[in-house]
Amino acid sequence: MSKLAVLDDLLERYYQLHYHQQPDLLRRLQDVQAWQKTRMQRTHAKQFAEKQNILMSEYFLNRLYGGPDFDALADQIARLTKYAHKAEKLIPDNAIKTGTSGVELAILAVQLDEEVAMQLLQDFHPYEALTDDMMRDTYLKLDQGEARLKQLALLDQLGVSLDKYMRSFMVQAAFKMCKGAANKYNFNVMYDFMQDGFLAMKPLKSAEKFVLDFTKVERQIIEKVHSGDPQPFQ
């Protein structure tokens, strides 16, 4: 069985999301994603501002939490799986596994935020500006606590994999060798997705530590939301 087969399942999940066919839902989803990014920037301002963390924080916000070009990335991944036998000869196994984890996280983030967007459309005017109170109430109504904790657990695993597998000279050399082929066969969006990850890791002593510092605070927020704290995002 192809090591890239799991990507087919992930892409099927992604293409089944409702917002692809519902413009109103897409607009509200984008509102939710913008609120999420603003909230994370505020919550993690000190961590994100540290010089060595700037690139990784941007990667989190713009890649793992709903990047604007994810549709194009998904299309390129779908094409890649059709040539799995060739791709697997070029891409190291651990790089495939780590890249797949990043894609899974990005899709899960969109999936969870779409649920929030759908609930907001039911409960509020579609153009009403989002507030912390609206988001807290919606999280509680959806009871996403366990799903959000799963998201953070996957993120912790990704941090470990980044340190363990993606810092090796062989992996980075193999990746650089693929650049010409990526441009030639129009896989540039996917290549950039991975390249941004490599660049974000470079200033860090440990990607795992960066992730653990981030997820520790996010778990505290989830606990506050579900314990009834009236201002969990402060």
Automatic annotation (TrEMBL):
Domain of life: Bacteria
Domain DUF8198: 17-232
InterPro entries listed in its UniProt record: DUF8198, FFLEE_fam
Protein name: DUF8198 domain-containing protein
